[in-house]
Amino acid sequence: MSPMNGLRTLNQPLCFGFFVFIFCFKPFGFDVLSLSFPLLSYFLYFHVMTRTTPGWFILMACLSQVIADPFVMPVINDDSLGFLGLAGDLAGLSVFKDTRQKEYTAPGLHSIISYQNQIYAWLASANGPITATCFLPPNSLYLAGQFTAINNTESRSIVHFDTGLQVLSNLGQGVDGVVHALHCDPAENLVYVGGEFKSPLTSIGATTAGGGANVAIWQTNQQVWMNVPWKGFNGPVYAIEPFVKRNSILFGGRFDATVDGQLYNPQALVYSVYPTAIRGGNSALSENYSDPSSVSCQSKSYGKPWLLQGGVPGYWEADFGHSVSPTVIRISNTHINGRGTRLFSVLALGSNTYFELSTIDPITHTNTTCTTSCILSNDTTIPFQDFTVLTPKVVSAVRINIDGWYGAGGGLSSVEIFQTDIAIYPSLGNTNTSACNSGLASSTLITGVWKEVYVFGYYQNVLTSTFPTSSGTTNVSVTYAPNIPVQGYYVVSMHTPGCIGSSSCGQRTQVDLVLQLTPQNTSTITIDQTNTEDKTTIIYSGQMVASGPSFQPTILLKLSGSATPAKDSTTSIVADSISFIMNATAPNLVSILEYSPGNHTANITAWQPLSQQLTIGSTVRTIDATSEKVWIGGSFLGPNGTQNIAVYDTLFGTMLPLAQNGLNGNVSTVLKVDSELLVGGYFNGTVAGLGLSHLARFDTSHQTWLSFDGGVDGPVEYILVSDNSSVLVSGAFNNLIGVGTNNSSLQRSVGNAMWNTVSHEWMQSTSLVVGQVSAIYNLDKSSLWIGDLRSAQTHRTDSAALGNSLAVYPLVDPHSSYNARAGAVWFTDQNRNQNQNQNQTNLNINLNINSTPFILLAGQSTGPNNSSEIVVYNGTAWTSLFSVSGNIISMVVFKDNLYFGGNFNNENNQTSFSVYDLKNNTFVDVGGIYNADGSPGLVETLYLHPNGESIIVGGDFIKAGSLDCGPVCSFNISNHKWDISGNGLKGHAYQLTSSTEGIVVAGDLTVGNQPTLVAQLPTDTTEWKSDLLASIAPSYIPTTLDWLSNVCTLLYRSDTMSAFIGSWNGHNYTDIGSLLGNLSDIHQLLYVPIASSPHEARYPAGTKNMLMAVGNLVIDPFGNSSAAFYDGVSWYPYILSARLDGRPGTINQLFSNVSCCNITESTQDHYLSTPAVILVSIAASLGLVFLIVAFGLLFLAWKRRRGNRDEPEPMPPWIPSNETTILPVPLSTSATSALPASSTPRTAPIPPVPPMPMSEQTGQAGPSNLSRAGFQNVGFGSLMAAAMATSPEIQAATENTPKLFYARHSFVAKENGELSFSVGDPVVVVDTADNIWWMGYKDDGSNHPIPGIFPSNYVVPSRPIS
């Protein structure tokens, strides 16, 4: 059964008499009531079975489930574990207690994470940015941004989250765009929403009448959208902040008009103007890119770039045919084969003076000005750049000079010119809307025959239509369609040139103008065109409705129905310009509006601009209005010259500059804390030159800028209050700069960092949160973290961690990019003796040299040079011992010496193997490990021999010192000499261990030219022998093993990174680990004693233990885990870890400081000591460290090193299954087996004397089908003869096929029915059905067979050598 099946509870006592279960349905429509009764019954059943207080049960249908799926984790029996060390590539870790915990979140998801009881739990994830939040007490959290789904349920950019029930719900159907800002008004239960959208949605694709452009209100009581009184803004809203001192709300963004038309800025409204003629200088000779008119919006060929000839300057020129006053010039660069314009200038033809332009640099986000050397970006992700004219000029033609270029030459993709006046000049070449579709464009529709006639004195062409006077009528007309940006009061005027300039005074008459400037209202006026001089006639003054999909204001010019016949035989009418001037009596609006809801009535307008505004085109990104003054940040030039940051003095109603003229880049966030203003953004200093990298503190009392140490190495988006003495800084940065006294130092901190506002220094967080945080909320019993969060782990711990009885104590390594490959513990003579006299579980983290082991780590630091470093932790600080050039893969500490191997050269020219005297801080002179050509060999594994006399070294090499002995050699600890470890072994050894039979090695090996995965070197021979042939197991190379019982557990990894776990019993291979994901990467396996778990299964079966795997695991359905339990049926995540960049971490090794014993001696769960193998296989090219050990791995051989005899551990009891003398059915061969020595008495029945194994027909000793009673009548010698006659091909011993064995160890019977014997005694075995206890006979000294049962691992098939 998977551990996800069924209801599970947290592995801790319930603190409350009830718990809440939210049952959610997707899609909607489930009958909650019909499901509640079976669910309640299940709860009651669970209560009876688990004795967990059920309390109250609440079932609720909800939009999306975010309640925890409680998880019951196996509990380790940790009575004598002491401290545990985790070495690996990690910066944070958590103990897995909740199914909502994760190692990481995929890029592109923004999440809501809860932190409670030292657990970070993922509550929900959106498929896009969550950039705005607000909170309404007691439990309503609103989240908004740019997403279409949250927890896989459709949600359009805004959602409500109930923090009590932890339930998500939509606000109607959301909004049809992006939300940048939220403000919750608890007094009125309103949520103000600002961003870039047209309107909220009532259904998918349909807008609602409630809510206007870029701003709307959600009424929480009625659950409906409402409009703001001014109907919205004509630009995006980025900030909504309450102004507490004035009981008002401030809206900031990039807008300059309200949709109702009451507020606007005439100078900010820009409209496209179109040239009547376009020319180019030095255009490309190729026809494809030689037409300069193709980059003008109204051109039929628009969209095709225009290029200059290669390597020469040139120009683009536009003639408008009438006077214009350009205010904005929009230019798009060409990106063809790396070509494009780099330097340009804009010339006003006629006066031949250059326009002074201003633009925002797309890279640095700073305002720049230019005249003759303006820079156009070549970034393909930038669609265009707007250049604002600082000093307008009246011109009829402009020229863009191109003086510098990218690649082979310059060119342009589009040019669009805007002015502030709405004036429509009809012409034959401009009859359609702009193809650019950017800005506010007007159009004309010409019907009938017209021509352009030059008017002297007016100096422009005028559209003219002529027809015979005698006809009396004509169908010619011109329809003017102005693009009115905002509703408001307009004065509309028409210009009529005098007739003298065109010699048409005898042809003129009257025209009608049909005006439809508001819906369902049409009026007609008549204008006399017989004027001799130019004249302008006001044709309308009043309200006009803004242009939109539902209504377009128009003016139709045609021959008047009451026209007086012309004096000449030909009649002519003219169609010249019409202008639309908005009434400018209202105050100007630039990017900030103040709204006082309490003052709003039908007769009082409660919204207004600030008394003094920012400059036109300003963008306000952030506002702090918590004090008497309003602090404003964004991208702008203040009225007093300050850049990107300003303060509004409410007392005097003026904008005040900040010291040093502000900051030289965009400001994203401001936060007032006491007398300091904290500022973050895209700047690197003040305008005056003070260096401030993306962060700054402004002392409002002394008007001075201060730093955040050295700042951070990337833009800052948020500064959030964490508590009364700290703030969280968040943004797109990876490092803190200038931490401490060293201004060049960097401290890794990806996405966020904590700043102490009292001591003015960075704080080291005890937990690890990676990514950008957009909001933090501290609730009664938890806190919520929201944003682009890649990972969140309980403990911050770089490279290593120590734990007491599984409680984690992080050890933060100063080498923050350090990947610890291996770890070990060193006891000095003094602390070794003291450690033997104290309870390991009482150790604490306040370590010192007298009572504490030193923690040693070997690993690599990220950098250009391939080097490894060994560092030591003495309880208070890390210290570097030394570095080597290359990789350190394995290390062993014995007494006061450190033995380490890999592929390296150290400072003493020792190659791939070295010994370091820890006590004297010196290297020991030893021979290195080499390949045949003399290059450094590869050491994969070091193993301390149980006799404590040698280090066994395995890898891929030929020589050790001058001795030919690869791939396995023995290093003598006493004389520091190399010895040969057996003959006949070749290949690549990945891991070594020992068994009762001798040394065992796993790898890509051959023995006697026979491929094998595992080989053994028995203690009674010098020849290696094959154990697991490569032809039997999966075709991957094992790289790690441990010899544990007569069944081997294998973990392989294929070239496609697919993981396999299986068992091998000498005959058959069985898959036992298919639940691991394909990308699992196991570095170490351990056996751990289990006190309790959700299921009865154990691994090995029949024990109280489980397998623990560490590395980087993928476990369905939990996801990534760095350590996990395996009970033979299911995997249980145990430890989650993460790197500093948020990717899943990797545990390379778990090590311990327990010096007293193997963990099995501290419990009653003894392991078998007959042969078994655990193999870990991975693609050899990965070159990783692989360790497989019992839980007390560093001191596995401690007992033998202290003089204990080499003998197996005591056996579990034999328990008869019935009254017969047949041994129990053997346990499954899919795992190592041991029966538990629990409460069952250790007794065994006396088996009957077997029959004489003698053929009645031949009288020859041999197999026969005799009864057991026959054995009582024969001597032991005859029984031996019968056993020796049994064919060697017969594997199992039975009564009919007895087999001869010899005692390798002495065994003393402790219970009735057991068989005692001494080393070397022959034993005739008649039953091997159980792999633990066998039945057999021995000689009683008078040739009489004595029956009994005995441990199977005490006998061998050949007589042992004394």
UniProtKB/TrEMBL annotation:
This is SH3 domain-containing protein. It comes from Phycomyces blakesleeanus (strain ATCC 8743b / DSM 1359 / FGSC 10004 / NBRC 33097 / NRRL 1555). The keyword Transmembrane applies. The keyword Ribosomal protein does not apply. Residues 1231-1263 are annotated as: Disordered. InterPro entries: Gal_Oxase/kelch_b-propeller, Rax2-like_C, Rax2-like_second, Rax2-like_third, SH3-like_dom_sf, SH3_domain. It comes from the Eukaryota. It holds the Pfam family Rax2_3. Residues 1244-1253 have a biased composition (Pro residues). Keywords: Membrane, SH3 domain, Transmembrane, Transmembrane helix. The chain crosses the membrane at residues 20-44, 1172-1198. PROSITE patterns: SH3. Residues 1296-1360 form the SH3 domain. GO terms for cellular component: plasma membrane of growing cell tip. Residues 1231-1243 have a biased composition (Low complexity).
